[in-house]
Specification:
By secondary structure, the chain is an all-alpha fold. Helix 1 runs antiparallel to helix 2. The N and C termini lie far apart (62 Å).
Length: 90
């Protein structure tokens, strides 16, 4: 049960980081911080809940990390509205 709770909290922790990442230029300094900034928080969460990093826990925790990043990025894209095509000057 602790593993599922850690996975859910990992998703929630990563939503703001995914939101931030979506607003940055790819591979810039802020982008790297947005992608990796939640790692120490997730490690502290996992250790606090007494979950070892084993082959049986790793896939769920990694998947939840990326799911939170994707959810945050998707929320930012949905808030910004559809992208408009540039008007032609003909």
């Amino acid at each position: 049960m602790a593993l599922l709770g850690a996975a859910a909290l990992t998703v929630l922790l990563n939503v703001p980081f995914g939101w931030w990442r979506e607003g940055t230029r790819k591979f810039s300094g802020p982008w790297f911080l947005a992608v990796h900034g939640a790692v120490p928080l997730v490690i502290l969460l996992r250790r606090g809940l007494g979950i070892s990093l084993a082959w049986k826990t790793l896939p769920l925790l990694v998947l939840s990390y990326f799911a939170g990043q994707a959810a945050g990025a998707g929320l930012r894209r949905s808030r910004s509205g559809p992208k408009r095509e540039p008007e032609s000057s003909m």
